[in-house]
Amino acid sequence: DVVLHLGVRGARLGTRYVLLLATDHTESRRLDEVRRDFIANISHELKTPIGAVGLLAEALEPAADDPDQVRRFAARLGTEASRLARLTGEIIDLSRLQAADALNQPELLDVDRVVAAALDQNRVAADAGGVTLVSAGDEGARVYGDEALLVVAVHNLISNAITYSPPRGRVGVGISRKNGVIEIAVTDQGPGIPEEDRERVFERFFRIDQARSRNTGGTGLGLSIVKHTIQNHGGEVKVWSLVGKGSTFTIRLPEASEKPLTGQIRLPVD
Ligand code: ADP
């Protein structure tokens, strides 16, 4: 996708030479396409709950004399409003993450703390779904990063693992360290992810089974938020899966050395 600019110069002077300019537009075209798709997806995703809110509002008036109906419609309105709030929140998070290549002020963080916070946020959901959370920490594991962003990333993986767990399923969360890499692994005993979808689950709005996933209340943005957060931290996120047995999502981050990367620079004193 290269545009060639061709010109002939110096013709009037009798000398002729050809000026050839090549500009590669591939990357900017691709980004334009990604942006267009994102906006088209957002519009599509927002239309469903907004449409539902409109219909429910119309249905309320004629149902005014029936308190049961009013209660049902009010509950549905609440559900749609929560969905809209979650969707807009995640869209904003994702566009912020995409706009930033790297973190502003990374801090030295205890990975144990990050994982513990993400686990705590998921305990109610695990209890409600009859899922057991099992975790193994690593006291010395440290990374440079943004604590709030990393907690969201680990939270999203645990929350998915719970959502897709069978009743009485177990979700394991482990931290390990090897060769300067910290690994956070989240394992479930859910339906697994078919090979052809393993890359695609990290795309915005992608859901394996649209109908089933919609019932789980998901937005299809959770894993792309994980991917962008981890990329901004100089790491990567991967998935291993066996269909019918379960999945393991792994976040890999560079281990922080004991000394901070940036420190005060002392000028020599004479
Ligand atoms: P959602 O909000 O729909 O969960 P995600 O981006 O977090 O969005 O995930 C995208 C899709 O990947 C999900 O809709 C689901 O189909 C699939 N998925 C994510 N995590 C798991 C998992 N642990 N087990 C099986 N499928 C999963």
From TrEMBL:
Residues 41-257 form the Histidine kinase domain. The keyword Cell wall biogenesis/degradation does not apply. GO terms for cellular component: plasma membrane. It comes from the Bacteria. It catalyses: ATP + protein L-histidine = ADP + protein N-phospho-L-histidine. It is found in: Cell membrane. Its EC number is 2.7.13.3. GO terms for molecular function: phosphoprotein phosphatase activity; phosphorelay sensor kinase activity. This is Sensor-like histidine kinase SenX3. It comes from Mycetocola manganoxydans. The lineage of its organism: Bacteria, Bacillati, Actinomycetota, Actinomycetes, Micrococcales.
